[in-house]
Design a protein that fits this description.
Layout: E1 7-9, E2 20-25, E3 28-30, E4 36-38, E5 42-45, E6 54-62, E7 65-73, E8 77-81, E9 86-93, E10 98-101, E11 104-107, E12 116-122, E13 128-130, E14 134-137, E15 146-153, E16 158-168, E17 173-181, E18 185-194, E19 203-208, E20 211-216, E21 222-225, E22 234-242, E23 247-256, H1 274-296
Parallel strand pairs: 9-16
Antiparallel strand pairs: 1-5, 2-3, 2-6, 4-5, 6-7, 8-11, 10-14, 12-15, 13-14, 15-16, 17-18, 18-21, 19-20, 19-22, 22-23
């Protein structure tokens, strides 16, 4: 069973004593490591996994010749759903179709007749077709919201996958996009009105110059360093709003960089104090000149 620590023995009769041996798994040589320990007549696993399933062959040699013996290891494990386990949130736009699949892998395999069962808890099931391995929902509506459960069982364990289905609409947003170009940054700002209060906007995606920036609903304005852009080239900003149901484009605007961006001036390198020495020399010269001026007067 997956995660167990099996030890498998082979009955090897050799006379005289075996002088050398090797192990192979599915035709490939293996050696002892942190998970597997090999002796001339046994193989043990610290924690077996399904990838350890296969044919194991020991090849032993003595002064009379070489012989081999093979055993097959089949690791059992509990059912696993392809879509995950526990509670999985799924969403669909009202009026669209959706399939909630219950694909499962297991060893030993689940029984074809009663190894997989499907059930649901919803207000309206008039448009739900429950097949052998999936729920098919046509023109989803609010009454379809609820829990859809897939239960699989084999000789190892029982596993459940529960879909929490949400039916709603994609964002409906009035978005006012403004783009401001300064000598240092491109400022992308937005003022919006969310018309989907039941499924409110949770974030925006700003796509520009091949990059996508994620902005929270309170994260505007977005400032982008202007050195990432080229003078005279046209760029397009696309704003996408996202909620729990899906996403939709709410604004698009193009702009040009009217001048050549230049990096910020670097600080003057430290010259070891030369500037300070020059300043001090000028000061000393001025001080020394004062007595001379007085004497001349």
């Amino acid at each position: 069973m997956d995660g167990s620590r099996p030890r498998i023995y082979l009955n090897i009769d050799a006379a005289p004593r075996i002088s050398a041996y090797t192990w192979e798994k599915d035709g490939e040589r293996i050696t002892s490591n942190g998970r597997v320990s090999l002796t001339v007549n046994s193989i043990s696993f610290n924690s077996v996994s399904r990838s350890d399933s296969g044919e194991y062959t020991v090849i032993a040699t003595d002064s009379k010749g070489t012989g081999s013996a093979t055993i097959t290891l089949d690791v059992y494990y509990a059912p696993e759903f392809v879509e995950g386990s526990g509670i999985v949130n799924r969403s669909v736009v009202a009026g669209e179709d959706i399939t909630l699949a219950c694909g499962v892998v297991a060893n030993p395999e689940i029984d074809e007749d009663d190894g997989l069962t499907l059930s649901y808890e919803v207000e309206d099931n008039s448009n739900i077709e429950m097949g052998e391995t999936a729920f098919e929902i046509t023109s989803a509506m609010s009454g379809n919201m609820g829990l859809y459960t897939c239960t699989a069982v084999n000789d190892v364990a029982i596993t459940e996958l529960i879909y929490n289905l949400i039916v709603g609409v994609v964002p409906n947003v009035d978005f006012n996009l403004t783009i401001t170009i300064t000598s240092d940054v491109i400022i992308i700002d937005g003022v919006f009105s969310d018309n989907t209060p039941v499924n409110p906007v949770v974030r925006f995606y700003i796509t520009i110059n091949g990059d996508t920036y994620t902005v929270s609903t309170s994260g505007f304005p977005l400032n982008i360093n202007i050195t990432e852009f080229t003078a005279g080239q046209s760029y397009t900003v696309t704003v996408t709003a996202e909620n729990i149901i899906g996403n939709t484009t709410v604004a698009t605007q193009s702009f040009n960089i009217p001048f050549t961006p230049s990096p910020s001036p670097s600080p003057t390198p430290d010259d070891g104090g030369g500037a300070n020495v020059a300043h001090l020399s000028s000061l000393l010269f001025f001080v020394l000149m004062i007595p001379l001026i007085i004497m001349i007067i």
